[in-house]
Amino acid sequence: MTRAARSATAFAPGGVGNIGPGLDILGLALDGPGDTVKAEWTDEPGIRIADPGHPELPREPERHSASLAAMAVFERVGDERCRGRGVSLTVKKQLPLSGGQGGSAASAVAGAVAVNALLGSPLDPFDLLSAALEAEEHVSGRHADNIAPALLGGIVLIRSLEPLDLVRLPVPKELLVVVARPDQQLRTVEARRVLPAEIPRAVALHQAAQVGAMVAALASNDYGLLGRAIDDRIAEPVRMALLPGFREAKRAAMDAGALGSSISGSGPTAFALVRGAEAGARVAAAMSAAYTASGQHSEVRVAKVDRAGARLIRRNQGQR
Amino acid sequence: MTRAARSATAFAPGGVGNIGPGLDILGLALDGPGDTVKAEWTDEPGIRIADPGHPELPREPERHSASLAAMAVFERVGDERCRGRGVSLTVKKQLPLSGGQGGSAASAVAGAVAVNALLGSPLDPFDLLSAALEAEEHVSGRHADNIAPALLGGIVLIRSLEPLDLVRLPVPKELLVVVARPDQQLRTVEARRVLPAEIPRAVALHQAAQVGAMVAALASNDYGLLGRAIDDRIAEPVRMALLPGFREAKRAAMDAGALGSSISGSGPTAFALVRGAEAGARVAAAMSAAYTASGQHSEVRVAKVDRAGARLIRRNQGQR
């Protein structure tokens, strides 16, 4: 175990949950913006939030995913390293609120990693994941498709939550992801409410086949198959109605040469998978133009898959 | 195009459909017994059956999967090579009837391949598959998880039937399959009748995750993951009631070191995946003993995955 720190700051990337047919079970992390959490010892016992990272985010520790994750880390460690002690969290939020880019997961993971470092890193990645998952569950439901890639990086399949069993999938070299966020907000809980409780068997089996095909495509660098497998018949059809402009942006992406396109997480961000930077630029321009044509401003970027996941970016030594 | 033959004989292997969670979308071919179809020109126009291969199998061409496939090949070719001409089929059946080892699919594939060879091989594998699929649809429903591996060999994922899109998956070197057939018959149509029309969302997503995990496991030679992914929560729970002794045989297989175990196709054959011949022998003995203890005779064998698929085993030249 390493020596306890005075403060520790961790970063976790945003990403794309579901990746089309992989509802709740497939996710990837993206290079670029993410959430940063600085954890510092304070005199007041318990976890508190010094800065929630955004005026619309709660300051109550039991409602912010970073502090919820910090509390879950404290619970898991549970010994004299944290008993009766206090930690203050400062969140720097680069990811959009309710944007569908895994913002709550990134805050949770960064919070868990920062506090774990503050305690001398007693928890392994498995326990960190379970702590972050507990936090995510409070704010947007029990699913690890953002949490797992935010922590581990790459593209991750969640085979099972109970027991937790993750599969890290290969990332094809030329794969890029276009993310386009229109100027809307869609809370995960609302987007989940429209999901059907029961799925016709044929649809369920088709969806399973797409997930299998995606995994096969990633393992064999088959970009064409990867695109064909982005065929979500459970969430996309019902969420489309909540996402003005999505249908047009998707069509524009496909016409511009995207391999496949769907909703990132529960939206409103749309994503498209592309092969290579040229296709990326073309698809990004097309999606942006489509949202503009539907009367909406959008933020569009082209990103690689982040392979590193959450990382400690500062750690100040010193015994308390 | 090759010269038309006087007669042609084709073999197609049996196998395991579904492979656990891959209901209708995953299948593998097995070394060992299969069905053989000999096709010969006759003077009487149309397709007829000289020998259906088993006293319980129909002699009516529109009810036997081999002749149905032959007719589908004729339709697809549709020119002077078959117009007004007649073919007689002799089926040699090594696979059990209603056994869950892909018998109807093997007969259909062997029939299609034999008749195609008789015509000078005008159809490519894609068209042969679609012809065999049409035949299988008449006798046991529209699913390609037996047809595709019987034709192509190996382990196959069916991403889509419309349009037909197949993915051949890697076969781990030490993978063996134990198949145990108790002395029962279960018709595919009956076994399909018990399947739920609607699947709870959580179950559907779990099943999709297992399919993804199986594909990942095959691609990375992860035997442990492969076993954990054999977790079918759609078909196995409802079909178990139709299959006395299955639960015990599965438990015995797992206790003896199987990676995973489930129902082969729609049963009654049970299968277990194992790593290596020693485990194979142990698991085979355990499953056999379990069926005996439940008062049933069973036929148990350990087989490799067949990588060749259907093959022409004889072709007699000669213009008619």
User: H/E element string of chain A?
Assistant: EEEHEHHHEEEHEHHHHEEHEE
Number of strands of chain A: 12
* Count of structural domains of chain A: 2
Give the CA-CA distance, first to last residue of chain A: 16 Å
Based on the coordinates given, report the CATH architecture of the largest domain in chain A.
Answer: 2-Layer Sandwich
Kindly report the average pLDDT value of chain A.
94
**How much of the residues of chain A is beta strand, in percent?**
25-35%
Given the C-alpha coordinates, what overall shape of chain A results?
globular
Which structural class fits the helix and strand makeup of chain A?
alpha+beta
Biggest sheet of chain A, in brief? 7 strands, mixed
Overview of the molecule:
The structure is a homodimer of 320-residue chains. By secondary structure, chain A is of the alpha+beta class. Chain A folds into two domains: 5-168, Ribosomal Protein S5, domain 2, CATH 3.30.230.10; 175-303, 2-Layer Sandwich (Alpha-Beta Plaits). Helices cover 36% and strands 28% of the residues of chain A. Chain A contains ten helices and twelve strands. The longest helix of chain A is centred in the middle third of the chain and has 20 residues, at 201-220. Chain A is globular, with a radius of gyration of 19 Å. At the A-B interface, strand 5, strand 6, strand 8, helix 6 and helix 7 of A face strand 5, strand 6, strand 8, helix 6 and helix 7 of B. Strand 8 of chain A pairs antiparallel with strand 8 of chain B.
